[in-house]
Description:
It comes from marine metagenome. This is HpcH/HpaI aldolase/citrate lyase domain-containing protein. By secondary structure, the chain is α/β, with parallel strands linked by helices. 45% of the residues lie in helices and 17% in strands.
Amino acid sequence: RTEYGSWWNQTGFLSIQMESLRAVTTVSQLAIDGVDCLTWGPNDLLYDIEAHPKHPIQTVDDCVKHALDQLRGSQTRISFRSYDHKLRNKYIDMGVTVLMEHPK
């Protein structure tokens, strides 16, 4: 049992799914010790963006940029579902380190 727990502590990772502007704007509070990755799906986040038309952040890309800026110097990484391998370099250049996309 303890061997199994040790294996997970060394091998597993913890990712938190963010689906709201509030989560994006408080991303540094989610990036606590032990959280390896923060992620979201762009379509889920768009529901909240559309529900808040006067919020200063109005695009998914602006959310990505904001989160990356807030996490600068943190060990927590950003994962993003671009769905399209053609967008890979765009998000890598922004600083995203984990990409989820459809296979070619």
